[in-house]
Structure formats: structure tokens, C-alpha cells
Amino acid sequence: MAKSDLTKTDNPFTNAMQQLTLAADVLRRTVTRNELPDLERNIALLRQPKRILNVTVPVSMDDGTVRIFDGYRVQYNDARGPYKGGIRYHHQVSLDEVKALSFWMAMKCAVADLPLGGGKGGIIVDPKLLTAGELERMSRGYARAIADCIGPDKDVPAPDVNTNGVIMGWMVNEYINYQKSKIPPLPKLRGTGKNKLTDREELRLRSTFTGKLIRDGGSEGREEATGLGGLFVLQTMLARLGLKGEMTAVVQGFGNVGYNMAKFLSGAGFKVIAVSDSRGAILVPGGINPELTLECKKKNGYLAGCYCSGSVCDLTKGKQITNEELLELPVDILVPAALENVLTKQNAPRVKAKVVLEMANGPTTPDADEILYKRGIPVVPDILSNSGGVTVSAFEWEQNLKGQHWTKAEVNRKLKLRMVSATGAVWDASRRHKIPMRTAAFVTALTRIFAAMK
Ligand code: NAD
């Protein structure tokens, strides 16, 4: 292993390659001398994406000027199926970030055993500074700019930070119009400006984007899938760890993932005693009621004072604490579900939870990972714990391709099967090789990807 690979940096792609190096070292111990050249070749191939698309998106602004936005689509690996991964709008998007995220998507899809590879996209933009019309024109322009490189069998984008089902609706509409414009018109439609696709063909093209609204061909259960998948992973992991009984939990973040996680944890009998958002955290020792807390937060605009337990919100039932304090509470389960790099070498020695379930992407720094491992605190890694989202995205793609619409019960049943099986595979790899679960998740993913690269 090259020493430079082990240097810890803030560059996400360097960190991703460090994770690859650690897993590759484990895999080298499992192969024969004859198999080694193939393994080395595959590891070398995974050290860079297969394709990087750089796009410029001109947008007519409301004031009559034209602004050019820079964007990317990185197609990392498609050995197991079409590239899959979200599109991020953020002013700090960089090529290295998109490369890292696309690598992690390849790993996540392989851990969940989905017939998909890994990709990711992004535009350097602060979407909050755009009007609704500018946002739509930019999204449609980006979809057109990447249209030749995506498709049901090529690359299937989805929402990520600051993108959502509405934006996916604009993009899929633009993509379908673009594809129609390339079909030679049928004789009877010549001169009408219309090119025909059958409903089935159009639904197939819709599968190019997932995370769509139901009315645009989206799947039941997608919004809750990441949280529900996280619960299935946690329950499976706790059984393997031999931990049972009534347990307490805290959740950092109260957005899509954090709220749903808190809701499913409470529903499954965990006592969620603290949650937080960017403005701070609340501690409710009796256990929060997530639904009432969300209603209260929507009404007030913040969590402080939303001490909702049982069927009431009452100022005497809780108190405000900081986000830092939340991470160090003495609980059974700590769920970071907001941002990256929140568990660091500074606070990892003070974490008192028995298990960390990473629902955000990259919440634990490599230093903190080492500290928690040495302290015997299992960290269930993001590429396993939050893979429920992409799993239901894959179900959406499959439903569109087959012209089907599954019920929520069916989606959740299939989700559970995938999550239980993925958790078992990671757990077994961790025990077999005596390695942390993060490296075990990479080993599991790489083994599957390399088998497909043969
Ligand atoms: P979101 O924007 O809906 O919610 C983010 C939450 O984090 C908000 O409540 C916000 O107030 C809170 N937050 C922001 N800064 C914070 C801080 N400093 N301290 C505490 N809380 C803070 O986003 P989301 O979709 O819930 O995603 C959360 C994380 O999960 C991200 O890392 C994302 O990449 C990851 N993830 C999301 C999905 C999904 O399906 N949405 C799937 C996989 C992974």
C-alpha cells in the first residue's frame, strides 16, 4: 500500500481511494498467486471513473441576461448494470466530490445487490439564488446536455442534495422530448411537428430518471425508503450483535432521512430522546413523538420548544441542547442523518452510544472511524445503512421498464428482503476477515463488482 494513500485529507475522492486501498488489501489476502494479476488489474481500473462528462448549461435569466453554469456527470463503473446516482445542486460541487460520490454509488448498489453501477452528477450553483423559472430552465438545460449519455440501459440519474421529484419531472420531460426529436416522423405525422412514441415506449424512457413524483411514474414508498431501509439494517445488525431489549436513540438531522428514521425507530419501539436540525437539538427524556414534533417545527419554524411526547407538546417535557451535545449523549443508538464529517477525532472519544448507524453520507471521518473501532463501538456504514433509498429507486426503474406499479406493501416487503440480505453479507465479511464493517461493506461490494468485470 502506498503511504500517500493513507494520508487523511478533506478531499472526498482521496478518502474514497483510501477506502478502496484498505478493502483491496483484504482482498489480496483471499486470492491465489494466479488470481492476483486479475485482481490488481480490477483494482487499478477502479481507481478512476470510466467516463467524466463536463457540461456547460446556458440559462436565460429573468433579467434578460444569460448565465453559464458548469456541471458534471461522472460515470464510475457499470460492470453490474447501468450507472446510477443522483444529481446535486450546490455552490461547492467539485469534480473530485462528484467522482467520490459516483464511486460510493457503485459500492452502495453492489452492497444492496442491485443490477446497477455507480454514477453521480452535479451543477455548481446555489439554487436558492435562482427564481423558479431559472431553476426549471437550468434543470432542463442540464438534462439536454447529458441526454446522449443517459438512458434506461446506460445511466439512470435521481435526486440528491437540493434536487427533488419536481426537478426529476422537468428533466424526464426534457429527456423524452429530446428523444422524440430524434425519431423520424411517421408519414401521417409529417409536417405536424409531432413524433409518436407508444405509451409503453414512453414509460420505458421515463425509467431514465428515478425519484420522480408518483404522477410522473415514481414508486410508492420512495420518500420513506431510506429511513425504513435504515431501520431494517439496524434491526438485523442488533440481532447479530446480540443486543436486545428497550433501547434509546438520538437522530441528528430532521429532514427527509432524519424525520423518517425517528418515525420508524419510534414505531419499532425505540425511545428517541433527542433530534436536531441546523439550528440546534432538543432533548425529550420521555421519548419524542416525531409526527407531532414535525407539525410543531413546521408551525414555529424551529425545533426549540417542540418537546412533544405521547400525544402532547409541553414545554416542561424537554430542553434545548446543542448539536455537539446530542452526538455525545449516553444512548444505545446514535444516528447521524444530516451532514458529512460530524464524527471527528475531537468528539469520537466522547461518543457514548453502543452503535452508530450512519444515515447521512460520510458523517464519520477516517480518524473518528479508527477511534470508534478501537473503542469497540460498531459503525454501520453509510453505503449499507442508507442504501434503502437507491434500492427503491431501482424498484422504480424496474417498474417503469416492466410497465408495472407496485403497492407500497409490496415495495416495503422487497426492500426488507434486500436490506436483511445486504446486512448479513456485510456482517459475515466483517467476521470472516476480522475487519470493521465499513471495510467489510467495501469488500462485499468489490467482490461482486470484480466478479462482473471478469
Ligand atoms: P434534508 O435536506 O431533507 O435534511 C437535512 C437535515 O439536516 C435538515 O433537518 C437540516 O436542518 C439538518 N442539518 C443541517 N445542518 C445541520 C447541522 N449542522 N446539525 C444538525 N442538523 C443539520 O436531507 P436528507 O435527504 O434528509 O439527507 C440527509 C443526509 O442523508 C445527507 O447526507 C444525504 O446525502 C443522505 N442521504 C439521503 C438519502 C435520501 O433518500 N434523501 C439517501 C441516502 C443518503
From TrEMBL:
Annotated site residues (Important for catalysis) in this chain: D160
Residue span, Glutamate/phenylalanine/leucine/valine/L-tryptophan dehydrogenase C-terminal domain: 219-454
PROSITE patterns: GLFV_DEHYDROGENASE
Pfam families xref list: ELFV_dehydrog (PF00208), ELFV_dehydrog_N (PF02812)
Binding-site positions, substrate: K84, K108, S393
Residues binding NAD(+): T226, N256
Catalytic residue positions: K120
Keywords (A to Z) from UniProt: NAD, Nucleotide-binding, Oxidoreductase
Gene Ontology molecular function, alphabetical: glutamate dehydrogenase (NAD+) activity; nucleotide binding
Any one biological process term the GO annotation gives: L-glutamate catabolic process
Listed InterPro entries: Aminoacid_DH-like_N_sf, Glu/Leu/Phe/Val/Trp_DH, Glu/Leu/Phe/Val/Trp_DH_C, Glu/Leu/Phe/Val/Trp_DH_dimer, Glu/Leu/Phe/Val_DH_AS, Glu_DH, NAD(P)-bd_dom_sf, NAD_bind_Glu_DH
Annotated coiled-coil segments of the chain: none
Family as reported in the entry's similarity comment: Belongs to the Glu/Leu/Phe/Val dehydrogenases family.
Protein name (database record): Glutamate dehydrogenase
Natural source organism: Candidatus Gottesmanbacteria bacterium RBG_16_52_11
